[in-house]
# Entry
Amino acid sequence: MKFIPQITPFDQINGKLNSYGQNLSFTIFDSEKNYYNSSIIAEIYSALYGSDRSKPIADLVSFRPSRIIDHEIIVALTTTIKLNDLKGDLTTKFSLVKNSIDTRDLENVHSIAMSFAKLSKEIDVNFRSDYKPGKFVSNITLDELKNIIVATKVANDYLREAAKTKVKKAIDFYAEEEVLELLPVFAASERSTFTINGATAVGKSSSEELFKKHIRDDHNLSWDSIAKINGDSYKYILEPGGFSNSELFSQLIQPEINLLYLLINQRLMRIIETGHAPHVFFDKVFLHNDNINQALLGGAKLEGILVDAPIEQALVRAEIRGALTGRYEDGYNIFNNHASISQKFVNFLSKYQGNQISYVLFDNSKNLTKTAEVDLADKKISIFDNDKFFGFLGKAKLNISGSIINNQIIYNQINIEDELYNQILADYKKVDYCLSDFDF
# Structure
């Protein structure tokens, strides 16, 4: 298969992309989005974090006003406005709001912030003790670097607040004109979070219609009345045409998508804290603990579908999808997704047992087939296909590097079922082996 190389966020700022014949287009380091070039951001990262590659680079980017407006429109539409889908409808409403906002009064904010930074003597920046200036930018001084860091923080904070105000004003206007419709909100006891999870290229989208039917028939909810969150959709909006211009695009834009996830979760938390919030739907590989904890606040419920398929099929699907749409995923990420989601689900079963959470697991190797149901509140697992259920959980034992090097699927542990049963399933008071059915 076509094996797309893995690009880490730090590769995007240290010149490694040149070896792939790529540039920094479609990234947050592009000059149309950011005041500073990638070398300066690399210098800042090195000064603050050294060789630690786990920190979010987007926090160091001095975004231009128009880009922060883009972020805040997506956040506001996602969390407060009815959307039929996260492609056409979100794109249309994004353009409507975007075209009504004037950012000219914000263009001088960064230069004002820089003047403030140069005059400020009381703000400290904690540089690493082993940092020596000039690793990526020659002749830069600690004072210059400190000024850039302080100005970035001051400008970003001010611009985000200003952008929120402008976006809210625009959305309120269109809501009053009934061009946009606000999402309904509910008390925690009546609120649910829904999610479709699954590793890369398992065919999560094939289960969406099933989920819509469940939400409509069992919850009496319309699809547009639920706040929907999907990072891939935001990639299309932030960079139209990105997938068709670079095989690395999905990776290049991911740091900005991670920032959007953070901003959306922060906005949702503020809404939840008012006592009433919308139902929420996530479409992502798996929920972070913050998402899960947020979903359960005040006694609210979490319902999920988890879709699985053999890794071999996922690799083929990813290659076909890339050839048809330009949406390529790197091979390492595909393996890592399959391994990590299984490990996270194993940990999830242990950590959240007793909470108001239910999951239905499906295998999508041929047709969408139910493999298990999990009721964490009742600590009950109903298994419909023993081999596929344990096959999914067993991916936690994938030897990723060995599988890639040897071009075959290799596991670190053979006796997967016994180990996982002893580790997790024994905690659940009842395990049923049932005849398969297709009811949600």
